[in-house]
Design brief:
The chain has about 250 residues and is an alpha/beta fold. Helix content is about 40%, strand content about 15%. It is built from eight helices and seven strands, in the order βαββαβαβααβαβαα. The chain has helices spanning about 10-15, 70-80, 105-125, 135-140, 145-165, 180-195, 205-210, 225-245; strands spanning about 1-10, 30-35, 40, 85-90, 130-135, 170, 200-205. The protein is globular.
Length: about 250
């Protein structure tokens, strides 16, 4: 049983237009829930509210709507041929500095991740542990420079490797949010990070393309993807990670 941890901000948390009308369950794909310490068949909505709300928390999909997680895990399983547990630990409107090891948010997420790994170990032979990251829009708003973003991202990855022995840190490259050069600074920093540090893998760049097409944007939340886009992003990224998992 492989574990895939999903982190980042609102587009990873899930801020689509609705709960998807098609919401299948796939054999061998589960979600870990911290509050009940249980594994449930993965479907929308994904995640749960844990921690001091809006201050140091991680949160479920906004209003119980859709996320990319189910499509990602289906794509991963189809390619890798492995069963998987998803651990959702994302929070909207967060910057990369909000996730550093000395923050309370990191410790809250770490408790969920640790308990999830422990649960899987009790019930299945443990396979690989991967982390998937979709974040950077808040840093574009803030105007974080590329050097600092990369420094913080590598520091965050190093903490996860130390604490949970993750096998690879996957990046879903961000799309346009503020629609100026600040977005491109974050995009370029993510690209440079993947080239600089072998612990990272670029899973997909499709979000950048989709972010410039209104057909893939949540009409109620500019800068956030709709369910159609989430399925595209999730499937492509999941299949990419699946190819990598088969190779190791």
């Amino acid at each position: 049983m492989d574990i895939i941890i999903f982190g980042g901000q609102s587009n990873m948390q899930g801020q689509t237009e609705s709960l998807p009308s098609e919401n299948p369950v796939t054999d061998g794909i589960f979600e870990y829930r911290f509050i009940t310490d249980s594994l449930k068949p993965l479907c929308h909505p994904v995640g749960e509210d844990i921690g001091e709300r809006d201050v140091n928390d991680i949160a479920a999909a906004h209003m119980g709507h859709g996320t990319l997680v189910p499509a990602f895990c289906r794509g991963y399983k189809e390619v890798a041929g492995r069963d998987v547990v998803a651990i959702h630990a994302a929070k909207g409107a967060t910057t990369i500095s909000d996730w550093q090891q000395d923050t309370e948010r990191y410790h809250i997420a770490a408790r969920k991740i640790s308990k999830g790994i422990e649960k899987v170990r009790k019930e299945y032979p443990l396979g690989k542990i991967f982390y998937v990251w979709l974040q950077g829009e808040s840093d574009a708003i803030k105007g974080t420079n590329g050097y600092d973003y990369m420094k913080f991202l590598i520091s965050y990855k190093n903490s996860l490797v130390k604490d949970f022995a993750i096998d690879k840190f996957g990046i879903i490259k961000v799309g346009y949010y503020v629609h100026d050069k600040r977005d491109e600074v974050i995009m370029q920093s993510q690209e440079k990070t993947v080239k600089t540090d072998k612990d990272f893998i670029m899973l997909t760049r499709v979000a950048t393309e989709l972010s410039e097409n209104s057909a893939f944007i949540n009409p109620s939340a500019p800068g956030h993807y709709n369910n159609r886009a989430m399925d595209i992003i999730g499937e492509i990224a999941g299949r990419t990670l699946g190819v990598y998992a088969k190779s190791i």
